[in-house]
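Morning, I've got a small favour to ask if you have a moment. It would help a lot if you went through both lines with me. Thanks so much in advance, here it is.

***
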Amino acid sequence: MPLWKKGQGWAIHVSDFIIEQTGHLALSEVQLQNHNKLPQDQQLRTTDAQQIIYPGKNHDGFWTNDKLVEQVKHAIAIFEYMFPNAIAEFIFDQSSAHGAFAKDALNAKEMNIWPGGKQCAMHDTYIPWDNPNPELWGKLQV
């Protein structure tokens, strides 16, 4: 069968998160009912981690690292709602996702190695709670 020429039809891009317990990372009907009873300021911004776009310059634009970072933030919030006190491990199967960082992420490639020059604005770093020295846990690294 020969390959068809590229036409003017629409493409579709689906980005989703799959979990062992339920498959698709989204609130169940029961969870949605309970979620909707929460005060507005405590509700999730989205209850389904799946993102669908129709890429192209005359449609939804293209899937970017910024869109992926935003989707991951929503996925984390959904996961934490579904599984309080659990730890999520995210595995990405698309290589360009490995280079996706939030704009203020601590990234050694963006840091100056010499004095002066333009420095990106990056967020503060806090010592993690599993640091071997308990006196430093949760403290700002200076």
